[in-house]
Amino acid sequence: MLTPLSKKALIIVIGLFLLCVILLSCVYFLLERSLPLLDGEISVEGLQSSITISRDVQGIATIESNSRKDSAFALGFLHAQERFFQMDMLRRNSGGELSELLGARALAHDKKIRIHQFRKRAQNALKSMPDKHVEILTAYKNGVNTGLNNLAATSFEYLLLNAKTMPWKMEDSLMVLYSMYMDLQPIWGQSERSMAVMRDLLPKDWFEFLLSPGGYWDAPIEGKAFTENNTLPKRSLKSFEMTEFTKNESASVYRDKIHYGSNNWSVSGALTQYGAGMVANDMHLGLQVPNIWYRASWYLPNGWRVTGATLPGTPALVAGSNEHIAWGFTNSQGDYSDVIVLQSNEDESEYLTEHGWKKFSYQTETIFIKEQEPQDINIKHTQWGPVIGKNHKDQLLALRWVAHDSEGANMHLLELENAKDINDALNTAAVTGMPGQNLNVVDKRGDQAWSIMGRLPKRVGFDNLKSKQPFFASQFPSDWSNGNKFWQGYLTPKEYPTVVNPIHGRIWTANARVASSENLQRVGVNNYALGARQKQIRDDLFEKEKFSEADFLNIQLDDRALFLQRWQKLMLSIIKKNALVLDETVQSDANKKLAEVALHLENWQGRATQSSVGYLLVKRFRERVINNTLGHIYRYIETHTADFWPSSVDNFIEYPVWQLVSEQPIRHLPEGFDHWQDFLIKQIEMTRLQLTKNGQPLYKHTWGQRNTLAIKHPLSAALPFLSYWLDMPAEPMAGDTYMPRVQDRDTGASERFSVAPGHEDKGYFHMATGQSAHPLSPYYKRGHDDWVEGRASPFLPQKTRWTLSLTPKKAVSGAN
């Protein structure tokens, strides 16, 4: 029998349970009302004729309309209903307008980004845009706002933030484009400024040793690999050692980070069963919920079907197929900006130009802050661009950047929809304003081509190829005050770098150098990837003479650790040499632990697989060796200046560090060791300790444990009790940095596809997360498992599950 006290407790428990049920029911009701419309018919303003939107079970949309403006309207409608918060964050990110939504915590970001004044630049770019593109943007904008207005309730992100949605403007589509610039290109000239610091603070031989322009891992599609600078510097490495880096929390620590980029490749029609070319693409970006891309397909007035990845906030197909051509992108890592060293007067009110001293101009930007008064900031300008800070010599710096010009932001990407062959695509590439990309395009006739899509500046006064140094002059900040250096507009289509129909029928790019000689001069050098991934793709392509879509998927999922093979062999050889100098009868605890390391190294599988302990050991060992050798130089530089970003200049660090551990020069032996063998065995021991510091035995420290997905919704950190529904499952993954299957916890292939134009029914396409940003959507996570497991889900949308009709609203007549 219940006592009065227990009855009271039971009543309280039941009451709390009912209260939770009521609260959850209210939350569910609010969330459900903000779900996108899937079925039925709605009448809307701004249409020329009726539109049919069909979705398959994954939510992949097919749009049928009578005009391109109407399909743009429908795409805007879909983007707004499924992804508006994402679009809003992208436009606010580049506009420096996050504080208006998120409050003062975003103020520091907004103040920095306002220097670029992207909203004003977007407004100016619209003025020079052709009418046909303005019409598409206008229709898209109307579709976005109609989609917003037809949600029964504001999307849940705004409810949680206690904020209102703001209408979409035409210029906002360009703001989304600028956010991609911010993701894919240095926005403060980090590489140039870091190069200058290294040049000025290091002896010349150390500077050139650390920054080889290329070497063994090069795999360009034209020209040859560069030669590594293998002359060992004279000054001892010990002279740069300051303090143990682990004791200094602010010191840089080298890690194999995945730089945003991508893979793509193609083969000519002679190497496919169709006679058409075939292209593969996987674009590497930071991964979160929802995916950056939205899959869609629509019909053009000429009957062609366009299918692939769209970017919410813009009306164009980014990558995919139009049944006549198919194309994909990788970040080109070319040189699209220059840092200018200003000669200023004492009070920094004037700067020197070719016409004498000139006053800085100023523009005021107002930042609106949620629940606070607005703040004004002044942007300091030169004739070349905004002032972005000071260098290590306390000199003011200005930035000349393609993104700051109206030529850098336009909607010419739309023209790829109507391209009938690679020549049409190449002509479009040379006039398109977007972050410079490696365009890999094929057509149904079997042709293939590479070029840069995005505007390339025509530099005057740099004489890059005439330099006797191993670097381009434009890789360093320079003084433009005498008028000898400037941009003379942009390259014309005839001047663009291209590779068309190579004799072997293969093209490949993966963020490393792809061009040589004059083509390289036109593209420029910024921060190329090492080339190991690109080389592995190239070699995969030369292993076969005929390719299917399944063959391309196998290359995309190639997780062989070819790059780390020599490091694995080095570790085993070090352990074996160490065993030879010890008495075999002595079975110390240290020797047993080294024997365990050796066992895992021997069984490492040669791949970045989830179950491999050896792969993790090799990766961490290499990082530790770099940190305790050349890492000292980076930390030495950091003690002298804050104008230095190691990750902007360390992509090729493999070349000098491998030479050190291979040749083992005594004068560059790190402090505290008598022999390189002692140093290297210590790094192995410390690597094992690093992995097992939590007390778990070594065999439990697999690569999959450290490479477990953490693809999260932007708001899940603030709502941990909802993270199970908002975030993607925490799956251990194969893949890593220096191989085609690029993968870490929250970065990797945002999508994978392969298609031959005219044969889209045989292609595949899968992407991380799902189509919808709404957690109650029936396809919120659908399709994600295909991406995780590498299944070739269909390129084209499948059987229709939901159908929505948009019809023109009839005008009301007879009223005065």
> What would you call the shape?
globular
Radius of gyration: 28 Å
Distance, first to last CA: 77 Å
Largest beta sheet: what is the strand line-up? 1-27-2-3-7-8-9-10-18-19-22
In DSSP terms (H or I, runs of 4 or more residues), the helix count works out at 23
Number of beta-strand segments: 27
Helix content: 25-40%
**Uncertain ranges:** 812-816
Summary keywords:
five-stranded antiparallel β-sheet, Penicillin Amidohydrolase, domain 1, 17% strand, globular, disordered C terminus, 27 strands, 816 residues
Descriptive notes:
It is a single chain. With 816 residues, the protein is α+β, with helices and mostly antiparallel strands. Among the domains are: 40-186, Penicillin Amidohydrolase, domain 1; 199-258 and 560-706, no CATH class. Helix content is 32%, strand content 17%. The strands form seven sheets. The protein has an eleven-stranded mixed β-sheet, with helices on one face. A hairpin with a 7-residue loop joins β14 and β15 (375-381). α2 (68-95) crosses α6 (131-149) and α5 crosses α8 (170-184).
Short characterization:
The protein has 816 residues and is an alpha+beta fold. The strands form 7 sheets. It has an 11-stranded mixed beta sheet, covered by helices on one side.
Lay out the secondary structure:
Layout: H1 4-33, E1 40-44, E2 51-55, E3 61-64, H2 68-95, H3 99-102, H4 107-113, H5 118-127, H6 131-149, H7 156-161, H8 170-184, H9 190-201, H10 204-210, E4 263-267, E5 278-282, E6 284-286, E7 294-299, E8 305-310, E9 317-321, E10 325-331, E11 337-341, E12 350-353, E13 356-359, E14 361-367, E15 375-381, E16 387-390, E17 396-401, H11 422-429, E18 437-443, E19 448-453, E20 457-460, E21 486-490, E22 498-500, E23 506-509, H12 517-523, H13 532-541, H14 549-556, H15 565-580, H16 589-602, H17 613-627, H18 631-638, H19 654-663, H20 676-692, H21 703-706, H22 723-726, E24 747-749, E25 751-755, E26 764-767, H23 784-789, E27 802-808
Parallel strand pairs: 1-27, 3-7
Antiparallel strand pairs: 2-3, 2-27, 4-5, 4-23, 5-25, 6-24, 7-8, 8-9, 9-10, 10-18, 11-17, 12-13, 14-15, 16-17, 18-19, 19-22, 20-21, 25-26
Helix pairs in contact: 2-6, 2-8, 5-8, 15-16, 15-20, 16-17, 17-20
